[in-house]
Design brief:
The protein is α+β, with helices and mostly antiparallel strands. The protein has 15 helices and eight strands. It has two domains: 12-80 and 132-236, no CATH class; 267-393, no CATH class.
Amino acid sequence: MPFLLPYLRLRDLGFSARSLAETDKFSADAYAYLTADPNLRLVGGFMRAWPKAEGALFPGFTITALAMLALVATLREASLVRWLTYLLAGSCVMLVAMVFGWTLRLPFLKITSFSRVLWIVIALGAVLLTISPEARSAAKRWWSHPVGMLSTLTLFAIVMSFGPHIHAKGRVVVDPSLYALFYDFVPGFDGLRVPARYGMIAALGLAALAGVGVRLLETAGLGALALVAALLIVVESFAVPIGVNDNWVVYKQPGLQPLPPTLTLEPAAEETYRFVAGLPASTAIVELPLGEPAFDIRYMFYSTRHWKPLVNGYSGGEPDDYRYLNQSLQDVGTRPDRAWNALIASTATHAIVHESFYAGDRGSRVSAWLWSKGATEVGTFGTHRVFALNARHSF
């Protein structure tokens, strides 16, 4: 409910459901789990099975091996009906292979339907649990064990990360998938844009399973091997330095200057936000220029310097009134009254004009426009000017 209620409120503000096409675009391909982030120094260069947006989910060789050790060790404790267990295991392996787009075509056997193999797995599991009290007891013990719960969580997260349809190298291999059921029938899921981020939950589950694997090695007297595994995890995950300050300067709006190459504030900007932090608690800030993601994202980050409510924002969508404000502020020179009314309607009490972010003299003209509408300049720090807005001058 804490996550669902904000999504329902967004619907009231004009946000529509995410389309299946958009959700598919940001879903993980099956080969995402064989694709590493290129920043990883050891494996990033060759684990590139299917690079795409939100598609670098390779968890690491060592973590996967430790997680499999924990899984196999707990499953071996269960004594089940052997032949049926082997058949079930083989069917599960075939199911995983088909997720990666593989099929089996032999003169006497052809397996090409994922749904049929899935039903076979379900049927075999049901038969095994029905005919074997030992199997039922073992299954109950396994699912109540931390490894069983973590394995189920990890598998669920991986399947959900594939989104409404499972793709293997861009080709649909399963339609629909489990995520589609949630998308259609569970409130809130049709508002999510990036199913691939379930990969974070899968990583959490694998990390916990790897911890169990390390403990098993230590218990077996293989503490040195456990230490080597820990070191290998560090080596595999080494990604220094990580480029977090990449600056995309292809703006949709004209007349804007490239932003600084880093997030470090220059002294005048630092002083500006220090001044804003000292304004009354009822203060609400709007920063100009507005509406360009590269700028709005930085304003959101810098808001942690003053913690005042901020009109600027960025996400995968925007309400109609924000879009209108953005368009209006781009017409300051041609329709100044419309722009002023939109600015006042935003409920901002103060505006920060970053004049150096504009090309030419546009920044000073924006400041002059605010002054002409009765705004009061309350602080000047280099090229950053702070205005108190006065709603009485709206038209």
